[in-house]
User: Which sequence fits this backbone?
């Protein structure tokens, strides 16, 4: 779906899925200037997280576990890079730690 918006316009995108075990919905941006997928943020259960590089420009919300829906909000379109393709993806939350990053080894 193509959405045409002008500067200062608000944009709201919706993503939903039907996989019962998936409790996280992620939002990605792919701009014409940089075709790499950049993680904007995600909703795990009902807890939203926005990556530092997108804070202040985007908000995420929703309930990825019960309602299986998440929203991406642009309070206002301000940058040329906002003209992009946006993707959402759903997954099971996975938590892990890397012990070597948790402790400093004395030298």
Assistant:
């Amino acid at each position: 779906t193509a959405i045409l918006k002008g500067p200062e316009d608000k944009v709201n995108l919706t993503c939903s899925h039907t996989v019962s075990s998936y409790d996280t919905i992620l939002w990605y941006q792919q701009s014409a200037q940089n075709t790499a997928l950049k993680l904007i943020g995600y909703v795990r259960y009902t807890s939203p997280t926005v990556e530092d590089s997108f804070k202040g420009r985007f908000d995420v919300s929703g309930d990825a576990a019960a309602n299986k829906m998440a929203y991406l909000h642009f309070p206002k379109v301000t940058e040329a890079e906002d003209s992009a393709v946006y993707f959402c993806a759903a997954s099971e939350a996975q938590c892990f730690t890397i012990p070597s990053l948790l402790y400093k080894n004395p030298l």
User: Anything to note?
Assistant: DSSP finds one helix and seven strands in the chain. The mean pLDDT is 82.
